[in-house]
Amino acid sequence: MSVPRVWQRFTLAERIARAILYVCVVIAVVWSIRTIEVIPEFLYDAPEQTADLFSRMWPFDWAFYPKAIHAALIETFHIATLGTLIAIVLALPLSFLAARNFVSNPLLNFVAQFIFVASRSVNSLIWALLFVAIFGPGALSGVLSIAFRSIGFVGKLFGEALEEAQVGPIEALTAAGAPRSMLLVKGYWPQVEPAFWSIALLRWDINIRESAVLGLVGAGGIGVALDAAMNNLYWDQVGLILAVIFAVVIVTEIVTSSIRSRIL
Question: What residue spans of 58-69 are helical by DSSP H?
Fold first, then answer.
């Protein structure tokens, strides 16, 4: 009489590996909690402190909006828009160098990819701190931090879009004797134009959010007003600024999504 076979989802080696992984995760969590020295007393009254903070933010100080928020909000839009435009201008040539089907030089491909990685690996706040130290506080530091942070994002995605372009039109133009400039205008650009506008709009949407907090380190925008209100403990003004930032983020998300849907 044969022994019935019992189906098991994982083999013995897989079960041992999963158990080891679970143990490692538990050890990592416990070690992290002990390292950051979480104070339980601060966690117990966190809900009460949160409720008290929100009660101080309401009602909003609406008189504060025309005095300091409106001009800072417009400056935030300018920082995000100008930073995005500068990033696009700088990233497009690099994206063509990074595309292996457009430039077959491995050294140039590596240099372009290295610039993209270096740009993306540094947070916009770190870029802002660097430029504030160089140029001083103000919108210029914010524009440059947004631009340098966005180069890697725009260049990498647009370079990948170039590499995914169909080779048929390119080969047809090449066989017809078209110069390299016409390969770009008639061969590559019609294929990657929707991706370009989608990437540009998406990055502008992201930059609106990032530029809203750059003022916390002195790089201009509405973050300056937020930092001043928090330092002075004007919580009704802080609440109004946070509500304005939230509303702006929602509106820009709706607008950019609508434009992208029409383009794509």
Answer: 64
Place of tokens 């929602």: 250
CB atoms within 10 A of CB 64: 18
CB count within 10 Å of CB 246 equals: 11
CA distance 24 to 21: 5
- Inform me whether the pLDDT recorded for 235 exceeds 60: yes
Amino acid present at 178: A
Report yes or no on whether pTM surpasses 0.85: no
Asked if 164 contacts 130 with a C-beta cutoff of 8 angstroms, the reply is: no
Quote the pLDDT of residue 26. 93
Q: For residues 177 and 183, what is the distance between their CA atoms, to the nearest angstrom?
A: 10
Domain boundaries, the chain: 64-263
Q: Which CATH architecture has domain 64-263?
A: Orthogonal Bundle (1.10)
Those residues whose C-beta lies under 8 Å from the C-beta of residue 137, and which sit 6 or more positions away, are 218, 219, 220
Residue 169 binned pLDDT confidence (cut-offs 50, 70, 90): confident
